[in-house]
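Dissemination and training. As part of the outreach component of the grant, students in the summer workshop were shown how a complex can be specified as a set of sequence lines and then modelled as a single object. The example used during the hands-on session is reproduced here so that future cohorts can follow it. Participants entered these lines:
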Amino acid sequence: MVGEFEIIEKYFAPLAGPEGLSLIDDAALFNPPEGMSLVLTKDISVSGVHFPLNTAAEAIGWRSLAVNLSDLAAKGAKPLGYLLGLGLTGREDAQWLADFSSGLKKAQLFGRCTLFGGDTVRTGERLTVSITAIGTVPVGKFVTRSGAQPGDVIYITGTMGDAALGLACIKGTLKSDDQLISRFTYPQPRVAMAPLLRLYASAAVDISDGLLADAGHIAVCSNVALKIDKARLPLSKGAHTILAKYPDEWPQIWSGGDDYELLCCVRAASVPAFEAKVKETGISCTSVGRVVAGAGVYLYDGDGLQIDTEKQGFQHF
Amino acid sequence: MVGEFEIIEKYFAPLAGPEGLSLIDDAALFNPPEGMSLVLTKDISVSGVHFPLNTAAEAIGWRSLAVNLSDLAAKGAKPLGYLLGLGLTGREDAQWLADFSSGLKKAQLFGRCTLFGGDTVRTGERLTVSITAIGTVPVGKFVTRSGAQPGDVIYITGTMGDAALGLACIKGTLKSDDQLISRFTYPQPRVAMAPLLRLYASAAVDISDGLLADAGHIAVCSNVALKIDKARLPLSKGAHTILAKYPDEWPQIWSGGDDYELLCCVRAASVPAFEAKVKETGISCTSVGRVVAGAGVYLYDGDGLQIDTEKQGFQHF
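and obtained this result:
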């Protein structure tokens, strides 16, 4: 196996921004931009827990950073940099490292951030990627989970459930569909939504543990209830095809994890302006329900009947 | 096993500062103090790699944060907060979690910082603690590894080799010595040295991989050579006793890892002021050699003869 210092010099130093001090100093240094608050988030990805053991190295690199960029986007934050904690099993060769760093590079170009530093260690049987991402928001503009109010409209970016269906494809329990698989292995963090959330969202969350579970965070933190219409849930073509054939897969749409889409609440008065601005981003964004007084998250069918959603969410843990 | 959200609420939320937003928001938010640069560092500790499998939970908590505080101290940075990435194996019970968070709490009180956030996941066989620590230095006062010049005096805090000897005690290859063992399990980051390094050090590094290996970083980055006198190396009583009986253990003093002491270089003209200020901290600090023109790190015995230090360092990796 390649040594720690060689790995850093060959594969990671080219990803570093000036804050990384060429990755020779065991620390990053930067001057925070004036008038900005810093947002920090951390997500760990473990092989065999957060992604299948046979996931391609490039996808692991992309995904590990992308899930952190998704967290920043939900806060309305602009990515700045990240620290990479990499626990290698000893089975990763030069090609693996090249592919992994290529995935990281694509994700950091997508998010317009650079590598600040990190630590590379030997771990046990499971490859572990622990990323701390740093972003900025103008002071006072951090988007919380606690500002939703009755009357707000609930929006969701992209389509729901694809990643969970894609994972089922990878595991072979559903017929393979490249689009759905790609939704699991290459989640697209909604970085471009961050400025709009800062302007228009009363509350936001990224959907990593399933729509209902993450909507539940907003319900709890904002002390409100969220009513979501099943008929309005945005579905991909691949999901449509599967659901037509296997209607039992429907709960994946609202309980499946790993979509890394955003859910946000918007005051009714802001809806026209929000929708106009969203169009400019090219990101699809669908109104799926309303915030009401009460507690909890409720899913309704087209006839206004509440759906029993026993399987309330997804926890990696 | 206890669930993720319960763990966070019960054990980690009490460690959080206001920046952690009660750990319910998946992100930390803070306004960097004006006129300060931020220093970020990341160190991962893996059970069975960085500490023995049977290490007490409290020691793991202390140690995992302490090694990051040591990195900050070497840069002259004052600790501000940290993000905790915790990979649990599933064998950790409530008592383990209480002890682990107690160790973290002691270390954060020692370093005067608080928990900003993090991620708790299920990992494989090896407990993994990935910490990102954040500190501040006044703009332009970051202490690098690259400023040493010929003529500078080389200082070392504390005593050398204790942690490696302590680890040998734990492993049973040396007779047990509580003091030495404690030097491995509860390293004392030299937080109080940070302001002095900012004022007086031309270069500094924390000694985590062994004296010669870490001195080597300064030699390379500063493009100088470091001459160190074996006779001046500060030794603990426990180390003295072992070396008197087993002189073959001497290389542990300059090649053993995990001491988390600081090495710094000070211009000859600043020596009196530096030594006076160090006394006020109560931390022992010993001059052990000189920076000279050239490249590499050289160890000399009392007669000025160069010692062959084949075993040049220690790598966890």
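Confidence is low (pLDDT under 50) at residues 311-317 of chain B. Students were then asked to discuss how this feature might be tested experimentally.
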